[in-house]
Amino acid sequence: MTGRPYRLVDAQGVPHPRRFAFGVPTEAVHWVTAAGIRPGVGSVILSDSDAIARAVLDAPAGPGGVRPAAQAQPR
Hints:
Structural class: alpha+beta
Strand order of the largest sheet: 1-2
Number of helices: 1
Radius of gyration: 14 Å
Shape: flat
Number of strands: 2
Strand content: 5-15%
């Protein structure tokens, strides 16, 4: 796993552009943060979710040219 936004890595250590760890799987990085989610106080888990959302919106197109909805071209 990389640093925030916590991309998963393959056996060769290469981060995946569209796969992320979130919540309890990141407990090794942020101990007991998934249990105390509180908006408006700089909650680590909410900051992590924001970082992942930004990364998803910036992600390259996937197989078949599928892009996140926010980046899709109007029809």
